[in-house]
Every structure is written in structure tokens, then in C-alpha cells.
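Input record (one chain):
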Amino acid sequence: MLRREEDGERRVTRLAGAVAAMALCAVVARDAPPAGRWLFGALAVLTIAGIWLLVRQWTWGEWAVWVVPLAFSAVVSLLASAGSVLHALYADQLSLSPEELSVPGVWQVIAAGRLLSYLSVGLLLPAGWGIARHYHLVRPGRGNALVYVAVLLMVLVSVSGLAVESAGRAAAAVKEAAREGRQPPLYFGVTPEWACVEPTVPVERLPGEGGRVDPSRPYLSFGVAGDVAVLWDAGVSGPLRVPAGQVRLVPARSGGVECDG
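The corresponding structure, as predicted from the sequence alone:
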């Protein structure tokens, strides 16, 4: 009877692991380039399998050495990314500040979760260690400190690289959409929209940082940050900031329409 209960618990654990693996693969592969999605998915599965084998062989001492520092690192990473590292990188690629994006808090949390999902790639090294130990290719207890340092470095490099690549690809999509007059894609709560800019003062008296407003054509609008309307000027491929109290932003269907200004 006891054996049946143990077998049942093992099946439940394996099922939960399989579901977690598929969920992690979907999260990581979704943000990967199309050509690399299968590779990312395979790496995620390999990582989960290797970490599972590694954990099964740990002693209590190894739990204290590995799990506590890694758990602490994960918590610190989550807190640090609450302000959205991805949004900051995205804004920097567009020569904007994170405050000018006006990202809702829920999307900052979602972006932080995506950032943490990149840890699956950084944990590939300990996963390989777990597989090697399972097949007795390495002896337990040797090189643990070295592997731990390598893991931290690999996590840092992989997460940083994937975050920069993700934000860079999204910003490039915005610039391309602006040049072609299309609607740019959503990026974790940031939704630039086409808008006609109607000055409420004579246009020659309207100050602008990054250029002068042309009321006859639409701009991509990132909304209003404080008392400044943040626009993207496809003509110069750069941001344009004008006083929000001196303009009206009227939604436009696309970048190819003519405004009434």
C-alpha cells in the first residue's frame, strides 16, 4: 500500500515537472528569434532534466551550498527587475527614459518574470553537471565551488545577453514600423500609437526638443510623461518632446494618413 502511494506521488511529481518544462519552454521560446525557438525549447528541457537529476543526488550540505545562495540571488533579481530592466533597455534603444514609457505596474511584473525565465539558459551548466553525475562521469564533491562560481557568471552573462537582445529587437521593430507607417508591436505594456499633433498655439511658437512639429503628418506617440508629450519622429529616427499643455494628440489610423494641421 505504501509503495503504491509512493509510486503515485512520483507520477504526480513527474507530471508536474513535465507541465513546468512545457510552460518554461513556451515562455523562453516565445521571445526567441524564429530560427532559434526549437533550440531554446530543447535547451530548456535539457536544463530542467539536468537540474532534476542534480537535485536528486544532493546531500543536505550541497542543498545549503547551492540552493540558499541561488534562491537569494533569484529574490534579489526579482526585486531589482521590479522596475523593469527590459523596459529600461528598450527605452535606451529609442533614446528615451524609462519614466517616459509610463508602464503599468502589472506589465513591469510580467517583464520581470520574463527576465527570470532567461535563467533557464544560465542554469545549463549545472544541468550538464547533474547529467554527468547521474551517469558517473564525475565524482561527487569535487569542483563544487568552481562550478558554483561558473554558474553565477554564466547566469549573469546569459540573462544580460538575452535581455539586451530582446529589448534591441523590439526597439528595432518600432523604428521599422515608424519608417513604414505601420502599427508597431506591443512590448510589455508599451504601445506606441500613431497620432496627429494639433498645436493649441501658433506652431512657430511651439517649443520642441528634438525638432519642430509638423502638424500635417502623424507621429508615433508614447503618451504623456509629466507635462511632456513624447513622440517618435520617423523623419529623423529619434524622439521629439513637446509641451503637453500646448498640443492635442488626435489618434490616427496609420503613419500614412494626412493630418488636418
